[in-house]
Automatic annotation (TrEMBL):
Matching InterPro entries: PsdUridine_synth_cat_dom_sf, PsdUridine_synth_TruA, PsdUridine_synth_TruA_a/b_dom, PsdUridine_synth_TruA_C, PUS1/PUS2-like, TruA/RsuA/RluB/E/F_N
Phylogenetic placement of the source organism: Eukaryota, Fungi, Dikarya, Ascomycota, Taphrinomycotina
Protein name (record): tRNA pseudouridine synthase Pus3
Family assignment from sequence similarity: Belongs to the tRNA pseudouridine synthase TruA family.
Organism: Schizosaccharomyces osmophilus
Keywords noted in UniProt: Isomerase, tRNA processing, Zinc
GO process terms (BP): mRNA pseudouridine synthesis; tRNA pseudouridine synthesis
Length: 424
């Protein structure tokens, strides 16, 4: 009982001391005033002593060549850093916050890897209020940016805005050169790998080589440069459709073990959007990936599987291999397809528009800038990406025989494991 009274008395003393401290500190604040330093004084258009930071959304386009991706990285040059520094230079971000993007809560709707481009992406960040309008910052910031990075719109939005969370789905496009899925020439090392991994009691090495020779001669006799055959096109379409729906994509990213719930992703559509011919008469396939969200390297690894399956037609069966990649507990070493021809087409914000209307904010949209964006995409992204395309080091590494050998071997094991589970 005495201990309880002692405890209550101590609490009461602390309360009284706290009250005394508050009264003393408030009296000190009335006596001493702390003048603003030079770094905290802000020159503002309306003549007020201080500008308020407001959460805005920022519509951007960029070419990813020469940058280590979108997201800010202290050790490398990134798109976010370039845009952040440009806003700092024009005074849209105060000098107190100019040392780190975290201080102004920079976020993006979709991350892009090294060398990946974006026709439309959305940033969320806090900028200083420019007399109630943020659009004047656009022309100023574009003068500070290289021509390969454009800011189209800056608009006030909800304080709670997080573009990554508000984005309902993302749309990507991958431009696949048709020659990448050509059948290897007979008796090449690539063909020998096919005979090694696809032989079975029903298919001898001789019969596989005969099919390779027949397919290769048909592809090369039809036209030059290479054109995808109708049978291979159907194989590619089938393989694309097998990605649709909710699956475990643990084999299509890094550091995600089998059974990790965060590796489950929903693909709305994966399809061949169109076939394009560049000025050199080379054929390109535009693959479109529409998913709720994507993990690191996921699309590039999905493209990799599509290339290997179509290239090894008619030996590899997409309906066996792709489901096996979702169900196999042992990690498959799927190489990443080259990043040079991957584009973020746009993030989609359908549900967020309703919240904007509910709180009387302007909707998050960029329809009035579509023509400018199309011109930018054609001039800075698609045209140089396709017409200046060469067989780069990334493609050379992608088609390394060691990688093909290991992947084809793992395909066979994954199919065996999947079939054994079905039999059980």
């Amino acid at each position: 009982m005495e201990k309880m009274f002692t405890l209550l008395r101590n609490i009461e003393v602390k309360r009284s001391h706290t009250g005394v401290w508050k009264r003393w500190s408030s009296s000190l604040s009335s006596i001493f005033t702390y003048p603003l330093t030079e770094t905290t004084k802000l020159s503002v258009p309306d003549g007020s002593s201080k500008q308020q930071k407001r959460m805005v959304y920022c519509i951007i386009s960029y070419r990813g060549t020469g940058y280590a991706g979108l997201q800010y990285n202290n050790a490398a040059k990134t798109i976010q850093e370039e845009i952040f520094r440009a806003f700092c230079k024009i005074g849209a971000i105060s000098r107190l916050n100019a040392d780190s993007p975290r201080k102004v809560h920079v976020r993006s709707a979709a991350r892009t890897d090294k060398g990946v481009h974006a026709i439309v992406n959305v940033l969320g960040l806090k900028l200083l209020d420019h007399a109630g309008s943020f659009q004047p910052w656009v022309s100023l910031v574009n003068k500070q940016l290289p021509e390969s990075i454009r800011v189209w719109k800056v608009e006030r939005t909800l304080n709670s805005f997080s573009p990554h969370k508000a984005c309902g789905s993302r749309l990507y496009e991958y431009w696949l050169p048709a020659f990448a899925i050509a059948t290897p020439s007979p008796f090449s090392l690539d063909s020998l790998l096919f005979t090694k991994h696809f032989q079975s009691p029903h298919a001898s090495q001789e019969s596989i080589l005969e099919k390779i020779q027949k397919t290769h001669s048909e592809e090369n006799a039809a036209s030059s440069p290479f054109r995808i055959s109708s049978s291979k096109l159907e194989c590619l379409k089938e393989a694309c459709s097998l990605f649709q729906g909710t699956h475990s994509f643990h084999n299509y990213t890094t550091q995600k073990p089998f059974g990790d719930s965060s590796a489950r992703r929903y693909m709305l559509r994966v399809f061949i959007d169109s076939i394009h011919y560049d000025k050199y008469n080379r054929q390109w396939l535009k693959l479109t990936f529409h998913g709720q969200s994507f993990m690191k390297h996921q699309i590039r690894k999905m493209v990799s599987i599509l290339i290997y399956l179509t290239r090894s037609y008619p030996f590899a069966n997409p309906s066996q291999i792709i489901p096996a990649t979702f169900q196999n507990p042992v990690r498959l070493h799927i190489p990443k397809a080259p990043p040079e021809t991957l584009l973020l087409a746009e993030p989609i914000f359908h549900s967020y528009q309703n919240r904007c209307e509910q709180f009387n904010y302007k909707p998050l949209e960029w329809s009035s800038f579509k023509d400018n964006m199309t011109h930018f995409a054609n001039h800075y992204l698609r045209t140089p990406m396709l017409e200046n395309f060469v067989f780069t080091d990334s493609y050379t590494k992608f088609f390394m025989l060691q990688k093909q050998d290991r992947l084809l071997h793992e395909f066979a094991l994954a199919i065996q494991q999947a079939s054994s589970k079905i039999e059980k």
